[in-house]
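Minutes, project check-in
Item: structure for the 124-residue chain
Input as provided by the requester:
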Amino acid sequence: MPLEGLDLYQIGPDLTGETLRSQLESDGDIRMHVNNGALNSFADTLPLLHPFGRLLCHDLFVTDVRDYGTGFFGPGKYDGSVVNWVNGPLLRHLGSRAGFDVRISPFAQRPAANVKTLTAMVRE
C-alpha cells in the first residue's frame, strides 16, 4: 500500500518524511523511532567533517530495521532520563545520501553491551 503524505512530515528544516520511504517500504508493517533530534543533529554535523575526519558516536543503536519487529527499544527510563534507541539504519541511509560511509559496530571496550559505536566518514 502506498504511503501518502510522507513529504508533508517535517523531520527538520531540511528533512522530510520522504527520507523514511525506503525503510518503511522495506519490511512491511513496522513501528520504529524516527529520532527527529538525532537525525537533524547528524545531518547538520556531517557537512562540518574534514574530508579525512571521522564522526564517532557511542549510543544505543538499532542496527537492523527488522529488529523493530522483534523487540522493544524504548522509550524507557534510565537513571531518571528517558532513553530511546537511535534508528541506526535511518542514520546510515541519511549518511549514504550525503556521500558518507556510516557503520555501526560493537563498542570496543564492552563488545557484549547494548552500546554501539557509529562511525561516519566521507565515502571514498
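Outcome recorded: Residues 6-122 form one domain.
No further action items on this chain.
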